[in-house]
Amino acid sequence: MLTDPREAYDRWPGHVEALGPVFRGTRRVVRDGGTFYLAELHPTRQFGGTQAHFEDEATGETVVIDACAHPVSEFVSAGVEAGFSVRGMGEWRADSDEHPRLLTIRFDMEPHAAGS
Known about the structure:
This protein is an alpha+beta fold. It has helices spanning 5-11, 19-29, 43-47, 72-81; strands at residues 35-41, 53-55, 62-64, 85-92, 102-108.
């Protein structure tokens, strides 16, 4: 298990520019009737200049994670185009937040009828 965020970040290939391949790949592994739950830094924060970051405990340095901002519609469209149905969305904020902090979307894969 990784406990150092920098180690996890060093292994991460980068933020996703094209959402379609991610959703299509997810569709291949989610069974009919299954659920895919997405949680992302809310686009309003990203478009406002906020990016995910962490503090390196060893150096005290703030490490900003590169990001590709996507509007909510791109997440929804990519999921629907991959064959998912949107079953719920949430915009999560702390009491002190002016704008939502996180976007969550629940995508479900409908069971296919026999013979389809």
